[in-house]
């Protein structure tokens, strides 16, 4: 190489590239770096030979070792299930009350129930049962269908308004407005009365007055008492919510309450029997009961 391609200060060859008077030296890569590079290439070739690696049109190379990650996972899952079998069998043979009263079973059920809840229920009810808009909170003490262990288990097994299960929880609130049962004025009056039951302040735009609230009380007595009770405390057997506790599924403002009276929304919870095993349902019931609002 001619001297013209050498750096004057270092005497080392250059690439001939110059930027703003700065020449690019043509130094070889360090030997350790090249050694590592070649070792990695050799290792990758060895890996391709030993393990499944290269995809093709109709499959992939299987590797001389015949390693199958799915098979390994299946074996590990089967081993874990076998290790848990003694506890699962005990839970299957016990009631939720018995599980709740046995410290060891309860500890296992809580761990399993949390995992089952996060996988199947948290999408609607949020982690920890914190609830989401239009989906009830499971960590308070407000239950439409009851919050003891047996009632929670029943709801999980058969769902709410689940068309696939004949034993599902079922209640339907009439369309008081769209079916012409009540006039708009009567709906406004009863909405004002319902808000007064829980101490909610009426929307000024609704022009609620003591007289309208009194009229609403009569409308409530004629049309709503059968399900919600004379004091609006609700009825667990009918799935009629308590209207006095300021806990609202869809909202407690005048507009939302009026809309619910006019044409109510009815949520649906799937029936989990058949989707989850008997033991899983019991563990889930115990976990939900322990979230903080179990009765």
Automatic annotation (TrEMBL):
NCBIfam families reported for this sequence: ccoP
Co-factor binding comment: Binds 2 heme C groups per subunit.
Pathway as given in its UniProt record: Energy metabolism; oxidative phosphorylation
Record-given protein name: Cbb3-type cytochrome c oxidase subunit
Known cofactor(s): heme c
Pfam families: Cytochrom_C (PF00034), Cytochrome_CBB3 (PF13442), FixP_N (PF14715)
Superkingdom to which the source organism belongs: Bacteria
Record-linked InterPro entries: CcoP_N, CcoP_N_sf, Cyt_c-like_dom, Cyt_c-like_dom_sf, Cyt_C_IC, Cyt_c_oxidase_cbb3_su3, Cytochrome_c_Oxidase_Subunit
Subcellular location: Cell inner membrane
Spans through the membrane: 32-51
Signal peptide: none
Function: C-type cytochrome. Part of the cbb3-type cytochrome c oxidase complex.
Subunit structure: Component of the cbb3-type cytochrome c oxidase.
Alphabetical keyword list: Cell inner membrane, Cell membrane, Electron transport, Heme, Hydrogen ion transport, Ion transport, Iron, Membrane, Metal-binding, Oxidoreductase, Repeat, Respiratory chain, Transmembrane, Transmembrane helix, Transport
Family label: Belongs to the CcoP / FixP family.
SUPFAM superfamilies per UniProt: Cytochrome c (SSF46626)
